[in-house]
Design goal:
about 160 residues, mainly alpha, Arc Repressor Mutant, subunit A, two-stranded antiparallel ribbon
Length: about 160
């Protein structure tokens, strides 16, 4: 199994927003700069994340994106599935018609792996990582490196 950049980038961007939720809405430009993700790619991902109710846009000066619900209620699986990433390891999409209309020899193996992977990723909530000291130290370094929130002096501290 290989998680594509779509799923990886969506999780990274959502983590970035969750880590900065106390500072207010986060712009896609800020995420792009700090996380090294193309702005146009983020725009595509956020259209899907917004449609699935994981983020909401805030218009006007100081606008950007914020989480649509608490980080404790957003799982990694929610994020990955919202950007059309598959967590299905079977070659038949779980239908059981992988070998001339019948199940292949390894169908149950890949189906079981898919179930375990989904269960694992749905059990990981954003707040489990945003509360880790090493993650918070990394984000402080990134923010300082890129001068993040300097254009919002009341939030820079």
């Amino acid at each position: 199994m290989r998680l594509s950049t779509k799923g990886r980038y969506a999780v990274t961007a959502m983590m970035d927003i969750a880590l900065h939720e106390k500072q207010g809405p986060v712009t896609l430009a800020e995420i792009s700069q700090c996380q090294g993700i193309s702005l146009s790619y983020l725009e595509q991902l956020f259209a899907k994340l917004r449609k699935k109710g994981l983020v909401e846009g805030v218009r006007g000066p100081g606008g950007g994106y914020r989480l649509a619900k608490p980080s404790s209620q957003i799982s990694v699986a929610d994020i990955i599935l919202s950007v059309d990433e598959k967590l299905d390891m079977t070659k038949c999409g779980g239908k059981g018609n992988c070998s001339n209309g019948e199940r292949c020899l390894t169908h149950q193996l890949w189906f079981d792996l898919s179930c375990k992977l989904y269960k694992f990723l749905s059990g990981i909530k954003l707040d489990q990582y945003t509360n880790r000291p090493e993650i918070n130290e990394l984000v402080r370094k990134q923010d300082a490196q890129y001068g993040r929130f300097l254009n919002r002096p009341h939030l820079a501290a």
